[in-house]
Specification:
Elements (H helix, E strand, L loop, with lengths): L1 H7 L24 H22 L2 E6 L6 H10 L3 E3 L7 H13 L5 E6 L5 H12 L3 E5 L11 H11 L4
Parallel strand pairs: 1-3, 1-4, 2-3
Organism: Raoultella terrigena
Pathway: Carbohydrate degradation; glycolysis; D-glyceraldehyde 3-phosphate and glycerone phosphate from D-glucose: step 3/4
Subcellular location: Cytoplasm
Length: 166
């Protein structure tokens, strides 16, 4: 309602679809999504290095509020073994069973990507460690996902909205 009131007062307003969560209806992708995706994948790559060298399981919490787009895209791009998004029901026991199956096949490490608000990731990591006997660490990426220089695709998405028009 604020934009409408400003327009009525003679100050034209527009809205831009800018959020890393990618949760604005009517858009395929929002401005900021791909920059956040790049940041998250870089973090997952770094976690994979330490998870592999220490033979541990990493649980990484990704922003998204109640939309799993960023988590899913990051899990695919980052090669995560498991992904948990709010759009799909999950059971921590099923997750543990899958992790145990991987361990039985000789898997030495794993990364679980999970969207924020689904559960307490520290409690989930403790549960996984207790049930599998494998050291498990939780990482909350937090607001680092919201910063940084925009990747080229976000710049392309924003360009038509930012041009001055006569």
């Amino acid at each position: 309602m604020g934009a409408m009131r400003l327009t009525e007062m003679g100050f034209p307003c527009i809205g831009l679809p800018g959020t890393i969560d990618n949760d604005i209806k009517g858009t395929d992708y929002t401005i900021g999504f791909f920059t956040a995706l790049s940041t998250v994948v870089e973090a997952i790559d770094r976690l994979r290095d330490t998870s592999s060298s220490h033979q541990r399981i990493s649980v990484v919490e990704v922003m998204g509020r109640y939309c799993g787009d960023l988590t899913l895209a990051a899990a695919i791009s980052g090669g995560c073994e498991f992904v948990m998004v709010p759009e799909v029901d999950y059971s921590r026991d099923d997750l543990v069973a899958e992790i145990k199956a991987g361990i039985a096949k000789g898997k030495k490490h794993a990364i679980v990507a999970i969207t924020e608000h689904m559960c307490d990731v520290h409690e989930l990591a403790d549960y996984i460690e207790k049930e599998t006997g494998r050291e498990t660490r939780a990482t909350v990426l937090g607001h680092i996902q919201r910063g940084g220089s925009p990747v080229p695709y976000d710049r392309i998405l924003a360009f038509p909205h930012g041009r001055l028009r006569d």
